[in-house]
Amino acid sequence: LPSGDWLALGAFGQVLRSTDNAKSWQADSLPGLTDWHLNDISSSADGQHWLIVGEAGTALRSADGGQNWETIEPFYNGSLYGAVSLGAGHWVTYGMRGHVFTSADDGLSWQETKVPAPISLYGHAVLANGELLLVGQGGIVLSSKDGGRTLAIVQREGRASLTDIVIGGDGRWILSSDGGLQIRAPAN
């Protein structure tokens, strides 16, 4: 966090905080949490806006560098696996069975995006041109060129569940999956 603190989260609503550069950890609590799993914590580029997402539509936001957190009014009842800030208060979160949501007001309100395949989505990458890629079950890579408002399948290969994507220096996609690592040329 911008304060220098470290925040770790995970199973059963567990939250840990370190104030000594991760040398020691203490249990912490955030408002509105239950024992649902927490799956991701993500920040805006300026480090001031943060989003935590998890099971059963759990979502919390911070507008002050992670010092204070507030529960977001539920907008989905399933698991959210990840979130990404696209700048200027715009966020995308994604999860189970092809559920993708966008927010243009730093997470205060959310709109669902129609997804062309009912697959769970586990990871993302943002290209230099702002294109958003989401990866998930069935070897599917989805693309959005409008901040997550519309999505198209750009690649579908195999049966592996893609769990994350990193863009290599040469532009190739490095994909992690339940079947191992894959390196692919980007879709045209």
Q: Please, could you describe this protein's structure?
A:
Helices cover 0% and strands 45% of the residues. By secondary structure, it is mainly β. Strands 4-5-6-7 form a four-stranded antiparallel beta sheet, with no helix packed on it. Strands 8-9-10-11 form a four-stranded antiparallel beta sheet, with no helix packed on it. A hairpin with a 4-residue loop joins strand 9 and strand 10.
Defining key terms:
single chain; 0% helix; mainly beta; 188 residues; four-stranded antiparallel β-sheet; globular
Q: Which percent bin holds the helix content?
A: under 10%
Low-confidence stretches: none
Instruction: Give Rg in angstroms.
Output: 16 Å
Sum up the overall morphology in one term: globular
Summed over residues and divided by their number, the pLDDT gives a mean of 94
Structural class: mainly beta
| Element pattern in H and E | EEEEEEEEEEEEEEEEEE
Q: Largest beta sheet: what is the strand line-up?
A: 4-5-6-7
Terminal CA distance reads: 37 Å
Number of helices: 0
Please describe the biggest sheet, giving its number of strands, its sense, and whether it closes into a barrel: 4 strands, antiparallel
Strand content: over 45%
DSSP strand tally:
18
Write the layout of secondary structure elements.
Layout: E1 6-9, E2 15-18, E3 26-27, E4 38-43, E5 50-54, E6 59-62, E7 70-71, E8 80-87, E9 90-95, E10 100-103, E11 111-113, E12 121-126, E13 132-136, E14 140-144, E15 152-156, E16 162-167, E17 173-177, E18 180-184
